Amino acid sequence: KTSCPVVLFAAEHSNYITGNAQPITSENIRYRAEINNYNSECSINDEVFQVKLSLLFIVKPDLAEENNITLPFYVAFLDVNDELVDMQYYQVDGNFKGEFENENYIETEFNKTIKLQIPLLNDEEYNPNKVIVGFMLDKEKLKILN
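and the corresponding structure tokens:
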């Protein structure tokens, strides 16, 4: 075991939306999601820096017509100079919980645990110093969120 890097949520990419129709507008948002919390464990094994990162996502239905949820996100590693060391892409899939008596979807939480690996470099200053987590958003979604 070793100490873990600081984990940060990207300010502009910590929220996610998707719509029922294209183009997405503020009137047809299907659901909203946020990255809410994390837990991490780190170790070094065979010259590889390993991070077990558990993330908590909270998803709120707006005009959800279906119960399926897909949340694409990225994890970026930065060194002490805030230079990108590595970036990896992931996805959370799940379903909304519902209230059976009225068939409405309710706020739903998802936990996703991922195992990240980065080869150690000889120079200590290039080893991961920060981990940035954010949703993958296109310009259309960014415009609506900001």
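(Above: one complete record from the training split.) The radius of gyration is 17 Å.
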